[in-house]
Amino acid sequence: MGEPSGWQLASISVAEARERYTMAAFGNAWAAMLVQLAAPAEGERVLDVACGTGVVARYAAPLVGLTGRVVGLDLNAEMLTLARAMPQQDGVPIVWRDGNATALPFPDASFDLVCCQQGLQYFPDRPAALQEMCRVLVPGGRLALGVWRGLAQQPFYAALAEALERYGGPEAATSLRAAFRLAEADELRALVAGAGFHAIRLRIRSRLTRYPSLAEFTLGYLAGTPMAGTVAALDATTRTALVAHVCTALRSYVDDEGMAVPWEAHLVTAQA
C-alpha cells in the first residue's frame, strides 16, 4: 500500500494531473451528465463558465452543430492552455476566453445556454456571478449548474480532508473543503432564484468512481489541486502515512478491481 515511487510535482503539471486524475477518472462523466440535462440544440449559443480544461464545452460543441457557438471561459491561464491543446472531435470550433465569472465579457442576451460545472461554490461573489449568467442569457435562456453535495455524501473527500488535516496541518484541507461549501439544496435554490432565474429544478445525482489503485489515485488527485505544494513539502514517511490513512478509511470501498467510491452532486436547471 506504499505510495507510487517517484511522485514529483515537477514530473506533471497541475493541469495535467487534474485532467488525468480528476477529469478522466470522474469529471468527464459528470460533465456529460450536465450537458445531457442542459440539452444544447442545433444552432444554440452556449457559454461554459469556469470551464477548466473545457470538457463541458467539448461535449456541447457537436450538439449545437456548425451553426451554433460555444465559448469556454476561465480565469486560470494554465487550464485554458490545456483546453486549447486538447483535440476537438467535431462540432463548431470552441472559442476559449480568459475572464471573470463576476464580470462576464459579453453583451446582454448573447447566449441561449450557460453551464457551470463545479465552479459556483468557488466564486467569491456567487450572487454577482449568477446575475451575470442571467444577464448574458436571452429571455427564456437556460442555466445548468453542477455543485457537489456535502462531505457526508463524499466518502473519498471526507477521508482525504481528515488525512490532510492530520498529516499536513489544520490549514491543509481548507481548499478541499471549499468544494463543498454550497452543499445545502435550499441555499443553492435561493441563490439561483435571487439572481432572477425561474422554473428552477434541483436534482440529486450519484455516481460511482472507479480507479485500479486507491493509493495512486489519492496522490495523483492531490497533484492536480491547490494542496499539491503542501503534499510535496511533506517528507516521504509522512506522505506515505497520509495515503495509508485514506486507504484504511476507505477499505470498504475497495474491491478486487480497485477503488469504487460514490460521488454525489446537485444538478440544477433554471430559466432566465
SSE arrangement:
Layout lengths: L13 H25 L6 E5 L5 H10 L4 E6 L2 H9 L9 E4 L12 E7 L8 H11 E12 L6 H14 L5 H5 L6 H10 L3 E14 L2 H10 L4 H6 L2 H14 L4 E2 L2 E14 L1
Parallel strand pairs: 1-2, 1-4, 2-3, 4-5
Antiparallel strand pairs: 5-8, 6-8, 7-8
In short:
This protein is 42% helix and 24% strand.
What are the key terms here?
alpha/beta; 42% helix; 8-stranded mixed β-sheet; Rossmann fold; 272 residues; globular
The share of residues in helices is 40-55%
Low-confidence stretches: 1-10
For this structure, what is the CATH homologous superfamily? Vaccinia Virus protein VP39
Rg calc: 19 Å
Overall strand count: 8
Mean pLDDT level: 92
User: Could you tell me how far the N terminus lies from the C terminus, measured between alpha carbons in angstroms?
Assistant: 51 Å
Structural class: alpha/beta
Under the CATH scheme, which architecture would be assigned? 3-Layer(aba) Sandwich
Total DSSP helices? 10
Largest sheet: 8 strands, mixed
CATH topology: Rossmann fold
How much of the polypeptide forms β-strand, as a percent range? Answer: 15-25%
CATH level 1 class label? Alpha Beta
Kindly give the count of domains: 1
- Run of helices and strands: HEHEHEEHEHHHEHHHEE
Shape: globular
